[in-house]
Predict the 3D structure of the following.
Amino acid sequence: MATPITPVDDSTQVSNKDKILITTVIIILLIVAAFAVIGFLFLKQGPDTIQGMGDATEIRISGKLPGRVVDIYVEEGTHVKAGDTLVKIHSSLAEAKLDQAKAMETVASATSAKVDAGTRIQIINAAKDLWTQAQAATNITRKTYERVNNLYAKGVVSAQKRDEAKAAYDAAVAGEHAAKSQYELAKSGAQQEDKEAAGAMVTVAKSGVKEVDALLEDQYLLAPCDGVITVIYPNVSELVATGAPIMQLQKDDHWAVFNVRETMLKDITLGSTLRVRIPALDTTTTVKVFYIKDLGTYANWQATKSTGDFDARTFQIKARPEKPISNFRPGMSVIFEGVDKK
């Protein structure tokens, strides 16, 4: 006789699996909680990492001369010295203005020289001859008047004749005075006011030449300081306007900049020496603080507690390396490690 098969209760098997799963989850949670408690009790929070970056002064090279770029003597990345020629700009309009200004200077100088030289010698001699003639006429009419006057006194001639002789003599005297004045005017030359006006015109003309020369000085733009060319804006043959940036020069004056809470300023002052690390160069060095300034209320560190704490304002600090750092470039990360107390 066959043995009967006892049916298995599936609900009992499912219940056992759930119990095992729940038990496992609870154990895992307890382990995680235990580690969290241990970490909270025994682990201490490390100090805040203050990370800054390298920076440098950027100078835009531009000029007063509008024109066309003829030559660019440098490339991006070229290291230049103060006074090196960077670019040449040509302006036909400015050169035409220079020619015009020089022509005006020539005209003004010639006019001034003419005024200073006075009246031509031929005119002076002619005026002198007229004065001499007037003197001779005066002598003749005087003698004639004297004779007629003597004859009139003797009753030989009439009063009409004497008056005519007197009028002729007076006219000759007046003509002599006029001739003498013309001679003295020709001999003295131009008036002082005319000379001053001519001199002023020369000064104006020379100023015009200097103005255009100053403008043309910017046809060759020079490096104002040592540094590296970082950006060149126009290409050769392009037009540039007055004051338009031609290229950008990065000065050889690097520093590190940090943003820190105001609570750190009790140890950091102007002139303080800071220890920093530059990860990209794998080096540690010291820098000296030369700039401290707050960044305004928009950069506050907000308090984490509703009471017993305060908002800390952010300050920007700039510090320059005490010794040159090879290959240190703007944009590199700089890690603050502490204040050098020595």
